[in-house]
Structures are given as C-alpha cells and as structure tokens.
Amino acid sequence: MVICDLAMMCLAIAINLLPVFLTTISTDLGGSDGLSAERLGRIGAVTFGGLVVGILITGPLADRIGGKPFAAGGNLLIAIGLAVLGIAPNYGVVLIGSFVMGFGAGALDMILSPIVSAVQPKRRTMAMNLLHSFYASGAVLTILLATLAVKLQIGWQSVALGLMPMPLVLGAAFLWMRLPEIVDQTQGPRTPTRQLLVQPIFIVLMITIALGGATEAGIAYWLPAYAEGTLGFSRFHAGLGLVAFSIAMTVGRVGILFLPKSVSTITLMIVCCALTALLFPIATFAPSGSVALAACVLSGLTGSCLWPSTLAVAADRYPSGGATMFGILASLGNLGGMVMPWVVGSVADASDMRWGLLTAIVCPISMVLLLLWLRGRVRRHADPHDAPAIEAI
Question: Taking a C-beta distance cutoff of 8 angstroms, is the pair 54, 110 a contact?
C-alpha cells in the first residue's frame, strides 16, 4: 500500500507541475506577447490526453499479464516526460514531454486503484479516498516546490529535471514487489467489458466520473493563472492558492475515513456536488479577490470525494470488473480533465477568465441529477444478497 501511495504522488507531479509555471512558460516560449490562453490550456489538454491514451491502451493488457509492468513502466514514462520537459527548447517539445508524462501517469492511474481495491475489498470507499488523498498530498508538495522555485527564480525546466529521481526509484521498486490479483476470483470470472458497457448504472458512472474530473481540473489547472492575472495576487501567492486547494482536497479525502459507516456514499457525493456548484459563482464574481480565492480553495474540499467515491461505487457494484473497468472509468475521468481546461481557456479568450471558469459549474449541477437517478436505481435493484451495492448507496 505504501508504494502505491508514493506512486500516486508521482502521478500528482505529472499533473500539477506545469500549471504553477503557466505564466512563466508563456513568457519563456511566447516571446513579448506570450502564449494565448488557448495554447496554455492546450498543454493541460495534451497531458490529460496522454492520460486517457495510456489508460485505454494499458487497461485491457493488465487483466491479461498483471499489473507489475504498468506500475513500473508508468513511473519510468513519467521520468522520461520530465526529462523531455527539462530540455525542451520550444512549445512543441513541451507538448511532447507533457504527452509522455501523461501517458505514464495514465498507466499508474489505471493500475493503482484496482490494486488497492483488491487489497481492501470490504472498505473500498475508504481505501480509494485514502489512496487518492496521496494524489492531493503529492500535489501539495509539487506545488509548494514549484512555488518556491518561482520565488527563488529557479526555472521550470530545472525543477522538472530535479524531480526525475522519484519516479525512477519507484519504478525499480515495483519490479521487486509481488502484487495481488486484480480480479476478485471469489466473485467469479472477470465481467466482460461488453457486458459492463450496456449496464445503465455503469453508463451513468462513466458520465459521472467524467464530470467529476472536469469539475476538479476546471479550477485546479487555471487557479494560479486566475489568481495572478484576474484577482491580482502575486505569482508567489497565486501558487500558494493552488497549494491550499490541494490541501483542501487532502483534508476532504482523509476526512472520509472518519465518517460513520451509515453515511451513504452517493448521498455524500450529491451534497458535495451541490456545495461545489454554489462555490463557483462566488469564486468567479465575488467583489473581493480574497473571497473569490477562498471559494476556489473550498471547491477543492467539496469536490475531493467525487472521483475516488465513483470508483468505489463501481467496484462495489461490479467487483469482477478488473483493470479494464477501472481503466474505462479513469479514462473518462481524465477525458473530463482534458477537455475542461481547454474549454475554460477558449471561453476566456472569447470573454474573460471569470466567465471561462464559471462554465465549469455545468459539471457539478449535472452530477447532482445523475447521482439522484443512480441512488434510486441502485436501491431498486439491490437485494439482501447484494451487500456491496447496498453499502455503496
């Protein structure tokens, strides 16, 4: 479990390193005029695109040959991506490095959740949120390091090279580990992917996690640039805003461990979605910059459980889904994370960043409607022998 938690922190490095340096990258690679918001958003889209491709390619293979090659290889690819970024001479090479790094992160995103699910079959909501809390913790450390580098005027390329050893060491460590079987054999053979894809509940879970990924990335990717360019904070304090956002996510995910078992997972998600939707207008149009930034940070707390809890509900409902099931869900979640930063940047180019960020409010509102349907559907189809489904309600 510990090495999986550390690998999740490497995944966080791949996703959270460049957003802190967006304004610096714009100046370094865009000349006096800088890069447009759309081109900066494209960096995030390419990273998440690599995630989706990595998940879709490696997920079905992991069910056949096991998780070790993908746990080790994912870390290695993140290291290679960091190396490419560290020597990137232009914008195009940055996109290449971002894609490679994203591909490696996708392999980790696909394999870590089913490994942990296999280790903790009776408390999947707790296990998933704890695992993903290390993503948030990794984001905090990455952003703190990057923010400190900005303060000390250390370049983003030097930081990328300095972070390479961690994924390299973890990749080697995974080669020596014995990993559990991904599919729960006590529940029967692996559920065929075709069978999963025609289940209405699973279809809703796919849409739900895509919206959850979009909700999280819509704010997280643009928060430093928004705090600096629109709210008027210094570059250093804008970076600290993203640190606070990630700390809030960590607190939210670890806090799940202390909730009583009687708390419904889906109901908790509904409440969190509603609170997130209420925070978005405050984050974008509050008259005070400090209040707006505080709302951005709090959206990290309220949105923290959406992704891992969706995975937990799916694992409880379909315990024999295997790595392919987790891969499908993770790819959809990252697809949401890929599209939303680009959408926000495009809307910002057409109007301003406030309206760009506000477009993300569509995601938590839509999730509330889907989760209400899902709660009713799971309850109707649960029976006394379907304990996992009942626990996930």
Answer: yes
Give the whole-angstrom CA distance, residue 386 versus residue 151.
Answer: 54
Residues 157, 82 contacting (CB under 8 angstroms):
no
What single-letter DSSP state applies at residue 248?
H
Whether the pTM exceeds 0.70: the reply is yes
What is the Cα–Cα distance from 340 to 214, expressed in whole angstroms? 5
Burial class (CB in 10 A: 0-12, 13-18, 19+), 90: exposed
How buried is residue 34: exposed, middle or buried, by Cβ count under 10 Å (0-12/13-18/19+)?
middle
Amino acid at residue number 21: F
At residue 386, the 3 state secondary structure works out as: coil
- 3 state DSSP class of 375: helix
Q: Which tokens sit at 279?
A: 């925070």
Q: How far is CA 35 from CA 29, 141, 150, in A?
A: 7, 27, 19
Tell me the residue ranges of DSSP E strands in the chain: none
DSSP 351: S
Cβ-contact 239, 146 below 8 angstroms: yes
pLDDT in tens, 282-327: 999 999 999 999 999 999 999 998 988 998 899 888 888 888 888 8
